[in-house]
């Protein structure tokens, strides 16, 4: 085969693979997690595999909606589901009444969600988000578990929703966005740092975390590489030393590989 013909054949195969992958991603669009300011949605409209926190036994459901998830623990169950292509309707009971919901999966992978009565929640008193309709973005890539490429360590995060309870440096339980666990000496020396704050910009996230060994506050940048699915820690620095010796096992250049 001539080089030009071979090149055309390779390009055709790559284009076909790309189209096939895109079709596979949109074949079941209503599955996954999305977020916007004040909203977090976790859905599986097909297998209905989402654990329902409003059920005594955590029965599976089509999905849940969390309003102001960093401030309240309330979750709202999605019910009465109907789907047609890239659109769906459902209901959810927000605070005092059932609201009609509509979902639209957008061409860019975002999710438009509209509520007939807005998004109400209870936080000491009945409150409501400012809009009835929101465009939510995929809760990706900073959501999941990665293993330290060289050494004993785990990065376990969901930077889109503060949902993890972990033991802090004082021995108490604290809700956080995730943990950076690093150990040496076969686990004899451990640093389990809790991520308390974050700012996400595409494939980069600035995080603030509390060291598990010294209780000091640190800031670092997490950089996600989509081609390798790895996360690299960049420029960790102390921003709130409480005095005493600073001892953190989180260092510049650490690479975590997706499990």
TrEMBL record:
Q: What is this protein called?
A: Lipocalin-like domain-containing protein
Please list which residues make up the signal peptide: 1-24
* Keyword Signal found: yes
Task: Please indicate which superkingdom the organism of origin belongs to.
Answer: Bacteria
Which keywords accompany this UniProt record? Signal
- Species classification: Bacteria, Pseudomonadati, Bacteroidota, Bacteroidia, Bacteroidales
The organism is Xylanibacter rarus
């Amino acid at each position: 085969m001539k080089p030009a013909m071979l090149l055309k054949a390779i390009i055709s195969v790559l284009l076909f693979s790309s189209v096939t992958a895109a079709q596979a991603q949109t074949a079941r669009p209503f599955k996954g997690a999305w977020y916007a300011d004040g909203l977090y949605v976790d859905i599986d409209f097909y297998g209905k595999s989402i654990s329902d926190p409003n059920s005594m036994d955590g029965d599976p459901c089509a999905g849940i909606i969390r309003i102001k998830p960093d401030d309240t623990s309330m979750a709202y169950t999605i019910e009465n589901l109907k789907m047609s292509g890239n659109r769906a309707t459902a209901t959810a009971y927000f605070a005092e009444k059932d609201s009609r919901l509509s979902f639209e999966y957008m061409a860019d992978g975002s999710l438009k969600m509209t509520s007939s009565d807005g998004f109400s929640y209870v936080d000491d008193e009945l409150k409501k988000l400012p809009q009835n309709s929101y465009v939510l973005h995929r809760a990706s890539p900073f959501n999941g578990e990665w293993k330290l490429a060289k050494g004993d360590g785990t990065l376990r995060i969901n930077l889109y929703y503060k949902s993890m309870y972990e033991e802090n440096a004082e021995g108490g339980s604290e809700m956080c966005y995730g943990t950076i666990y690093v150990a040496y000496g076969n686990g004899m020396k451990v640093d389990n740092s809790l991520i308390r704050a974050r700012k996400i910009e595409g494939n980069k996230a600035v995080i603030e975390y509390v060291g598990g060994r010294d209780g000091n506050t640190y800031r670092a940048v997490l950089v996600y590489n989509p081609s390798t699915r790895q996360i690299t820690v960049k420029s960790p620095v102390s921003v709130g030393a409480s005095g005493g010796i600073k001892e953190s096992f989180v260092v510049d250049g650490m690479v975590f590989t997706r499990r």
